[in-house]
Specification:
By secondary structure, this protein is α/β, with parallel strands linked by helices. The protein contains eight helices and eight strands; from the N terminus they run αβαβαβαβαβαβαβαβ. It has a single domain, classed as Alpha-Beta Barrel (TIM Barrel), CATH 3.20.20. 39% of the residues lie in helices and 17% in strands. β6, α7 and β7 form a beta-alpha-beta unit. The mean pLDDT is 97. The structure holds pyridoxal-5'-phosphate. The site of pyridoxal-5'-phosphate has 12 residues, from β8.
């Protein structure tokens, strides 16, 4: 299936989810996650009208960034090891996986401009997932005030892998409530307006629950086995 066709289908579903939840579809940004696909397929996505590209590994990111550069905004959505920060930090527009002070310090040291970050939250406490526990988020965000290279624009999570819609919805809802609480504090370094949540299998629920950035790989650009 062409990316254009997939995108059309996803946009229709976003519009429907927005109608159900009384939201404006313009507030939902689609990030094409290209980690499973080639440079060619990534370029096809851009031609289809995608403005945001997400990669979760240094190698995949550099391989695509080298050719695409500023034809897209770049989202680093995977765990970022501190020693790799210097290779990506001045090229990416958004980091979705800020979850520790050691990473924060490294970004502060290496970045030559402010980095827009989502703080990653492990809402349901799954052992296999990265991210802060919900109760750790506010103290962490408060501490980030000391690091002018960091701007907290929102929170990010991955829902549990389950067919149980209620579990997924609760996860997204909890993240939104946490976001609302931080937003109310009106930290100048952490406006925290955005919610990065929702992937191929759960983005419609995420949109209903307030997602502003959905990260879609398989259902948008597909998954190539290389
Ligand atoms: C791979 C990945 C996605 C996209 O996953 P799909 O299920 O293919 O849409 C989204 N977010 C993160 C953090 C990922 O690693």
């Amino acid at each position: 299936m062409s990316v254009a066709k997939n995108l059309e289908n996803i946009r229709e579903r976003i519009v429907a989810a927005c109608e159900r939840s009384d939201r404006n579809p313009d507030d939902v940004h689609i990030i094409a996650v290209t980690k499973y696909v080639s440079l060619d397929r990534t370029q096809e996505a851009i031609e289809a009208g995608i403005h945001h590209i997400g990669e979760n590994r240094l190698e995949g990111f550099l391989n695509k960034y080298e050719h695409i550069k500023d034809q897209a905004s770049w989202h680093f959505i995977g765990t970022l090891q501190s020693r790799k920060v210097k290779h990506v930090i001045d090229h990416i527009d958004y980091l979705h996986s800020l979850d520790r002070l050691s990473l924060t310090r490294e970004i502060q040291k290496r970045a030559s401009r402010t980095v827009s970050c989502f703080v990653q939250v492990n809402v349901t406490g799954e052992a296999t997932k990265h991210g802060l526990a919900p109760e750790e988020v506010d103290p962490f965000v408060e501490k980030l005030r000391e690091y002018p290279a960091i701007r907290v624009i929102g929170l990010m999570t991955m829902a549990p892998f389950t067919g149980d819609e209620k579990v997924i919805r609760n996860c997204f809802r909890s993240l939104r409530e946490l976001r609302d609480r931080i937003q109310q504090k009106q930290y100048s370094h952490a406006p925290c307006n955005y919610l990065s949540m929702g992937m191929s299998n759960d983005y419609e629920i995420a949109v209903e629950e307030g997602a502003t950035h959905i990260r879609i790989g398989t259902k948008l650009v597909g998954k190539e086995t290389e």
